[in-house]
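The passage that follows is intended for readers who have already worked through the single-chain material. We present the inputs for a multi-component assembly, then the predicted structure in tokenized form, and finally a short commentary. You are encouraged to pause after the input and sketch how you expect the pieces to fit together before reading on.
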Amino acid sequence: MLKICTVYYGDKYSPDYVGKLFDSIRRNSSIPFQSICVSDNPNVKADVVLPYNYNSPVKRHWHKLKFFSPNFAYQNPGDDIIVMDIDQVITNNVDELIGHPVEDGELITYGVWWNSEELIEHGLALETNGGFYKFKSGTLSYVWDDFITSPEYWQMKFFNDEVVHYRYYGEQNYVNWKVFWEAKDKVIKTPEKWIGKYHGDDFLKNIKLNKKYFEKFGDYMILDDVNPDIKIIHMLGPDNTIHNTGWVKDYWK
Amino acid sequence: MKRIICCRFGDKFTQWHVDNLKYMIDTHSGLEYDTFEVIEENLYGNWYNKFQMYDRFRDGQNLYFDLDVVIYNKLPNLWREKFTLLDDKWWRPDFGHTPLNSSIVSWTGDVSHIWEKFWPYADVYMRKYNKGSDEFYYKEIEYNTFDPVCPKINTTSPHTAMGIVTLGQLHHLMEEGWTGWWSKYFIS
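Having made your guess, compare it with the prediction:
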């Protein structure tokens, strides 16, 4: 079984983000899946809603790592697990993405095109992107097992090391470190042109992103409509929300 | 008088955890007892609250369990005359600040000297041993230890020679959505 898993908490996003993500995946895919959400709101729309525990040492989006444990979310051996952020808009058929083949000990993640040349030159570009992880149930369980031995340490490490600029950021840095550098497991990136990146309220940043996408793939990311090669737009940055953005209304429902 | 004791305070553990401990003891452990006591007064906001049991229960046979244990088989005789707690060295040789573990504690009669030593200087001791109350026992109290009886949980399979495991830092295994070999031993 394919399980697509998310985490929703707090009030930055409205609860309908969860249902809209799952509904739009179902509209744009022929692959059956079970939707799962860890949430502090029991009314989010998902097949399975599991409680977000505020008394846990695990904070915020770090709850995503729970899905790496085969003991969580009623996983069975052989299940395909996808973990996604909820701030994403499905703009095209995603069969190739969510149905991407995966073997034991592999991690499928977004290939991204927006890393700066400077980041790439210095070897600081991550191999993993926290917006999308796919793996075989339990075959990367060390990601959770190692994290939960020292959650306070890992949740602040990348902020304390000045790798990220916000407290409790760095979950994708942790996964990158564990899977790619430490375990040296195989990280497979999806084609870069499948993913768009958008800033809800920053016109200049979006122009730069459009220009970069054009330079890389010979067409714009978003003009009047979304480039047909793009399957998903990820709204990035701490203040970005989908509902601030005009063009999404045809997709985000 | 045989007394089982547990301690619940704050938001980390709920009534479910208390009910679950009693269920596991009654269903799987083979232990017989007269009363089941729950300490709920939150004097210190941390696990030093457990020390209240040395003040409250000054007679009879006493056996304390943490709420984050899994009892899945018959337990050996854990009732002790002298003040006794767990020594984790056998499964945790690099034990850090203390090898002691008060997930299980037993004594008979009056050990209120522990409480009397602690409470007048509670602030001092909680600063001195700020990683947990087990270091207080290690450095300040005379104690006996159980034979190896309660290791940390192995999530892949139960320890066949044991009847109880502690979750250690893996409290989340008791939360909704977590399943494994231990699940069938919990109250539904």
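Commentary: The interface with chain A takes residues 11-12, 155, 169-173, 175-180 of chain B (CB under 8 Å). The first strand of chain B starts at residue 2 and ends at 7. How closely did your sketch match?
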